[in-house]
Amino acid sequence: MLWSMGLAPIDKTSTDSALTGSTDAVTAYLDNAATTAMHPPAIDAMLPYLTEHFGNPSGAHSMARDARRAMDDARDQIASAVGARSGGDVIFCSGGTESDNLAVLGVAAAEDPSGVSMPVCSAIEHHAVLESVEHRDGQTVQVGSDGIIDLGHLETILTTATRPISVVSVMMANNEVGVIQPIAAVAEVVRRHAPGALIHTDAVQAFCWLDLADITPLVDMVSISAHKFGGPKGIGALIAGDRVALSPRAIGGSQERERRGGTQNVGGAVAMGVAAELVATTRTDALERVAPLRDLLADSLVAAIPDGNETGISDGDRSQRLASVCHLCIDDIESEALLILLEREGIFASAASSCASGAMEPSHVLGAMGVPRDRAKGSLRLSLGYHTTRAEIDHAIAVIPTAVEKLRANESRNS
């Protein structure tokens, strides 16, 4: 079904492998949590709005009305895909970061301009949420060693707070280790102990792999970003219901029903709508194909790499992990050196979230999960996409243990 809808695997170029001696190794793109390839139908849908249908949707003439109609159709597609009430709840923005900012800071500014209220989030949120909460002197909720939010600590924060709670933000699935949070249970605790607070979930990583239809009605706001599920970069959305009052972060225009000023990205919105619809209709097939590949990758690497630990996983239970994410912490290596060596072998991966790339400090996510600093410095995130092939997984399985062994040998000689 995936291939019949235009979701064919990406062709990978052949390379020689210095580590394995193979002459027919493939390039393995395993950084899909950072960004994934656009779905061909989304590209096809987007192109006309970059060429002949280029009207500004804020205008009054027929080309502008056509553009506005296309955006409204995209809103409806997205609302249906995520289980929202209507397309009117979809606020287009530049991506997940802006969506998260609008959810936390926009609510705080609208409901409490004086800055008395307090936002709350989990300790492993994306920086777009975490830093927004810190900006308003909010509080973070602890997680366990498995990365799951501590509901007891959340309850304590809500019941002992000396300031009104404006918003509670807990991501549906983590962008580094892929842990899935119990959003329904979070919502129950918040509604019981802080009924005046709004609930936001960052579903940027989740939407591609989890059906949001059962979760969206339980929360007040949901953030998604197109380039994580086969749409273009530079477009995302905050889904916000009637209960939500928002003060826009981008001012100077009345677009998005005065919730986000600025000329709208029509082509991006159209492509995002098509990608969202594709994801919703092909998710089951994608999961059935990708989950076994992830399991093969994780099981093989854990077995082949001494002191290669699957982060937050005990007894091989991955039921609370996204089917697309394999995260390891490997003792006695440094992530930066490993990533350089893997790239030479045609494997593209990351150490943490893409937003933390270049700053090789251990991630706040691993710190919150209690991973020791020495172990965290050897983190490796391998994330699969709808187009990932068995050949890519086999290449990674062949190369990564050898690369780790080589780095450890070098370190031993130099010590």
Structural notes for this entry:
- The chain folds into two domains: 3-38 and 283-414, Aspartate Aminotransferase, domain 1 (Alpha-Beta Complex); 41-278, Aspartate Aminotransferase, domain 2 (3-Layer(aba) Sandwich), CATH 3.40.640.
- Helices cover 39% and strands 13% of the residues.
- The protein has twelve helices and 14 strands.
- Helix 1 packs antiparallel against helix 8, helix 2 (62-82) packs parallel to helix 8 and helix 3 (96-111) packs parallel to helix 4 (127-135).
- Mean pLDDT is 92; it is low at 1-11 and 354-359.
Q: With helices defined by DSSP (H or I, 4 residues minimum), what is the helix count? A: 12
Q: Class of the largest domain in CATH?
A: Alpha Beta
Category from helices, strands and their pairing: alpha/beta
Task: Supply the number of structural domains.
Answer: 2
Q: At the fourth CATH level, what is the homologous superfamily of the largest domain?
A: Type I PLP-dependent aspartate aminotransferase-like (Major domain)
Order of adjacent strands in the largest pleated sheet = 4-10-9-8-7-5-6
Task: Describe the sheet with the most strands.
Answer: 7 strands, mixed
- Using the 3D structure, state the CATH architecture of the largest domain: 3-Layer(aba) Sandwich
Beta-strand residue percentage: 5-15%
* CA-based shape: globular
Unreliable spans: 1-11, 354-359
Counting DSSP E segments of at least 2 residues, the number of strands comes to: 14
Q: On the 0-100 scale, what is the average pLDDT?
A: 92
- Write the CATH fold name of the largest domain: Aspartate Aminotransferase, domain 2
